[in-house]
Amino acid sequence: MISALMVTQPGRTSSALAAMADFAAQTHRDRELIVVHDADAAFGETLKAAAARHGDAAIRIVRTRSKQTLGELRNQSLAEAHGEFICQWDDDDRYHPERLAIQWQALRDASADFSFLQQQMHFFVDTGEMFLVDWDGEAYPMNFIQGSMMARRSRVPEYPSLPRGEDTPVVREILRRGHAIARVADSAWTYVYTCHTANAWSVAHHRAIARSKAVGQARLLQLRAGLEARLGAFDPPLPAFRLSHRPEGFMA
Asked: Where is the Glycosyltransferase 2-like domain (predicted)?
């Protein structure tokens, strides 16, 4: 079983509900979603009502003590997981129905303990632009997207008590321990990262990523039809978007 792990809070209700719907639509059958929050009971009831609408999708809402860091809340979600494997499931991003299945198959094929995506879609709410960003150009072994982790639960290091950037120390520890990692290519459409005004990192930070890591015009033209078809399969539908390429003057 795969336990998808989501941390959420008031102010992100609409995006969290969309992420829950994306989980319910996953084609990988043996799964659960753990939703951890440290808000009041009323917020928890809102989440439970949304979970109930998905019937047998195995969504579990966990209320924990307040005023914890994101790293501490991620550790709480790990502690609540029942699955042999876990998958990070951020509350403000969107996931294609095949995301779990594709990363799980890659992990199995490689006999690995971890799998990470190398590409994802990067959506900017303020402009409606959608970029395909490619992290494979980063120096090995950090040539993958840290926030896309799927892992054997027993192999995941403890998260540090940080309000943001908690992924990087965990990934560095995974690499230090020499765990086998499956790097999943050509599946950017499975994960739509959403940039808005309340991300852990600023819009300027994400713009810099798009400028430096998004694919160029020629590659985007080759992939456009397939991307549009895959992105059209999300339910609820993605916000209106236009596929954009890396600005001129920046090299891959």
From this structure: 20-128
Tokens of 173: 């520890």
Long-range contacts of range 54-61, CB-CB < 8 Å, 24 or more positions apart?
Answer: 54/20, 54/21, 54/24, 55/24, 57/20, 57/23, 57/24, 57/33, 58/31, 58/32, 58/33, 59/20, 59/23, 59/24, 59/32, 59/33, 59/35, 60/32, 60/33, 60/34, 60/35, 61/35, 61/37
pTM score of the predicted model: 0.94
Which of 84, 107, 102 shows the shortest CA–CA distance to 155? 84
Write out residues in the chain with pLDDT < 70, as ranges.
Answer: 248-252
d(CA 78, CA 27): 22
- Tokens (6 digits) for 83: 């699955």
In this structure, are residues 115 and 181 in contact, taking their beta carbons and an 8 Å threshold? yes
Helix axes 13-24, 41-52, angle to 10 degrees: 30
Domains of the chain with CATH codes:
2-244 (3.90.550.10)
> Is the previous residue joined to 239 through a cis bond, with omega within 30 degrees of 0?
no
| Residue 190 DSSP label | G
- Report how far residue 129's alpha carbon sits from residue 180's, in angstroms, rounded to the nearest whole number: 35
Q: What is the β-pairing status of strands 129-134 and 119-124?
A: antiparallel
Longest dimension (CA), the chain: 51
